[in-house]
Model the fold of this input.
Amino acid sequence: MSRSRVVAVGLVAGIALSLTPRLASAEEPSIPLDLQAQLSAKIVEYVESPPLGGGDQLPLGILVNARDAESMRAGVELRAAFARVSGSSRRTFDAQIIQWTSASALTDEIARRKLAIVYLTPGLSSTLSAVVSALARQRVLTIAAVDAYVAGGAILGFELSSGHPRMILNLRQAKNQEVVLRAALMKLVRIIE
Done:
């Protein structure tokens, strides 16, 4: 094999290896987390039931997998994003990071902290069914940072469609968690069941 061919093969192999982790990551948010926080702040205005807190401050839990660095990074980034949104919105968010340990611990944290929203970060795919089972008995709005989580049982998420952010709604899960959204929002989302 000629030297130039060896260099070309090595270059192609190097590029393929450098792209592999990025392509293999199905849990990467398709919409930047900062934009997700901004959109989520607008969405809460369309929630009819359950009532999302009587005051101006809305308790929000950001669920992370402590064993996953990306999940932890996303949790910190979301908490900061909701702090920025709180500074520019009429409603503020009390965003708290919650580490996933078990279904019973999650339901205890929801009750103890009186959470109205639970935000699911990347890194939860291996425990998503347990998370969804725990949340099915809770009247909380669940929002997923990863669009694939909506099909897995989160109520709302975001996807990229023709270069623009678009909301996805899991109608079955919304009914299971007794979350009712105004009709005006229903016209703006892609509904899955």
In short: The chain is about 45% helix and 25% strand. The radius of gyration is 19 Å.
